[in-house]
């Protein structure tokens, strides 16, 4: 049994115990599971569905609807690039092209070596400093391709 598989039952159990009685608990539970495990594994879906008396399809539908939730394990560096309006008005499209080329990834992909995951996000609440991105929870504003290149160098990407 993997370390994650060992954690799965207690993790879901704790999230259910904490949130199941609250109104609209599903999102809170999914956040709690992803915060703990780094993803919402497919094996968590039936446990959550049983605990909330929902169908598996309902739970899976919510997991797949929100970009924030991921079913696969993320890379060591999770790069979340804002694609919302304020960032687009500050040329985030050019930044997107650059980042995708630099990491050789499309949105939603993780590199084969497990180092990088590239995810789209729709506003990081940092519009005044657009274009914005977040790397492993650290917010970066006014990111140019040059600035991203410097960050990438720190991660060993030339
Ligand atoms: S639109 Fe990108 S941070 Fe708000």
Describe this structure in words.
The protein is of the alpha+beta class and 158 residues long. The chain folds into two domains: 3-65; 77-154, 3-Layer(aba) Sandwich (Glutaredoxin), CATH 3.40.30. The protein is built from seven helices and four strands. The chain has a four-stranded mixed beta sheet, with helices on one face. The structure holds FE2/S2 (inorganic) cluster. FE2/S2 (inorganic) cluster (FES) binds next to helix 5.
Under CATH, the topology of the largest domain is which?
Glutaredoxin
Low-confidence stretches are: none
CATH class of the largest domain: Alpha Beta
According to CATH, the homologous superfamily of the largest domain is Glutaredoxin
Span between termini: 38 Å
If strands are numbered along the chain, what order do they take across the biggest sheet?
2-1-3-4
Using the CA coordinates, give the radius of gyration. Answer: 17 Å
Number of domains: 2
Order of helical and strand elements: HHHHEHHEEEH
Report the helical percentage.
Answer: 40-55%
User: Count the helices. How many?
Assistant: 7
Instruction: List bound small molecules.
Output: FE2/S2 (inorganic) cluster
Major sheet details: 4 strands, mixed
Strands, count: 4
Identify the notable features of this structure and list them briefly.
2 domains, alpha+beta, four-stranded mixed β-sheet, binds FE2/S2 (inorganic) cluster, Glutaredoxin
Task: Write a short abstract of this structure.
The protein has 158 residues and is of the alpha+beta class.
Map the helices and strands.
Blueprint: H1 3-19, H2 25-37, H3 44-52, H4 56-65, E1 77-82, H5 85-89, H6 92-103, E2 116-121, E3 133-135, E4 138-140, H7 145-154
Parallel strand pairs: 1-2
Antiparallel strand pairs: 1-3, 3-4
The protein binds FE2/S2 (inorganic) cluster.
